[in-house]
Design a protein that fits this description.
- By secondary structure, the protein is mainly alpha-helical.
- It has two helices and no strands.
- It comes from Mesorhizobium opportunistum.
Length: 45
């Protein structure tokens, strides 16, 4: 995928996958909760 894959978010499944994999990699490095934890917290509120 090209370096401009972010521009295809929501339009190309491979762009969505690349963004999800990037987020899964960077979240622990920034000390952020997993995306599933965030979604569960939003439903509980």
């Amino acid at each position: 995928m090209l370096h401009s894959f972010q521009m295809m978010a929501g339009r190309a499944p491979e762009a969505d996958d690349a963004i999800a994999r990037l987020a899964a990699w960077v979240r622990p490095k920034l000390g952020l909760p997993d995306a599933g934890d965030v979604a569960a917290g939003a439903k509980a509120a």
